[in-house]
Amino acid sequence: MSHYCAIRLRSLRVGRVHSGHVPRTHGCRILVPPPAPRRALLLELHKLNVPCALGFIRFAPNTPTLCGKLDQIPIPNRKFLYTAAHKNPAIELHGRPTFAAIYRTVDHCHDVLHTARNGSFEVGPTIKLSCSYEIHLPYGNRVALRLQMGTGPMDAKENDVSNIIHEDVQALCRGMELSLEDGESKWRHCSQPGDPLRSVQIVSEGNSVRLNISIAAKKNTSAMWLKVWWMDKAVEDIVGHCDYGWVLSGDFCISAVREAKKAWRQAEAECVRLGGHLASVLNERQQQIMDQLLIHAPGAGVDDVYWIGATDAVHEGEFRWSDGLPFSYAHWFPGWRKHSGQPNDDGTSGQDCVEARREFPPRPPPGTATFMWNDRGCREHNYFVCEKPSVEDPYEASKILCNETIVLSHSHPHAIVSSPGFPRPYPDDVECVSEIRAPLAHTLKLHFEELLTEHEPQ
To answer: Which pLDDT does position 397 carry in this prediction?
Structure first.
């Protein structure tokens, strides 16, 4: 920042801050007042306009930089929760962004996300509180919940242990109101002071649930409380025999790796460390499985981008999978009406690695319904999708592709031919023929990257 400035937000229950409050400098820090114990400060961005080349806003270190227009920012990135755990909280302004935001104090348990495989938490005891929790497990796992609520001793007759709960439709709850959202399904229950302790068991339909808890009891009444335990329940048709966090795709298990973004080669090295490679996608069914895995990943957003295992770094235009399987299927982004079709590398821009994404500039969100492919510079940092074998030898188990015909042209001058099951040895009792056709007045040049012939006695 060439001209440093710092201003401090007023410590209010509800407040507003905008670019008119900031000196006309090319950078500033808006200091956020530390929240009181068991409280937090929620800041929500309502207006933004700054070209990304000229500036941005950042809510805290190691958080996304926000630039462009507000409708280009994913909705989850437009807000930020400052808690007592944040040291010296501040909003960073780079350049001169036009913006407006509203901030308000909330309870410390506002919009809490849990992604652990199992765990528990407690709410209360208190007579006034507003909390929201989301439990989001990897795709292919349901959430098995157990809830305990109330103020009195356990009454066996009132004990409700069921996966089907009748909705409590009281208009006004003078105690603890609990609402549970499971996809399109919703359930509401009111627990009032003096009610017997109630235990409820629920198994979700999807891989995430949301709990909204509001406690508004009268003074001089028993404090209300809630205990929640959860654990994963695998969906065998989706997970198969794969490890937790992985789902079955053909003869492989695949997983979305979101801990840190990496360049393509570093992502491939991490997948090798995990026992496999960057994921290959061999048909439409595997593409659909990957779509579901990524769309339903914990913390997923429409702007997420993932590396997959395809690259044409060896020969421009000849894409191949890092696991050695044939490149027999593609899901390229077709482009907008007049431009941006993929792949669009002209051989000089270094776009040699393939990423999967739902959002394609210049169009803003919501993006496409599927993760389409785009060739990109391999040094860009993305999340990535890994695969590892689900069977002892996935190459041997894969379907053998035989008797293919490859037609070369001016726009497609190269092709890769491999033996069935490559990189494994040629299978027994199989005869395959690959026919390669070149345009008139052209000859074929063969380059063997690997050639191994077996000598068998007559």
So the answer is: 47
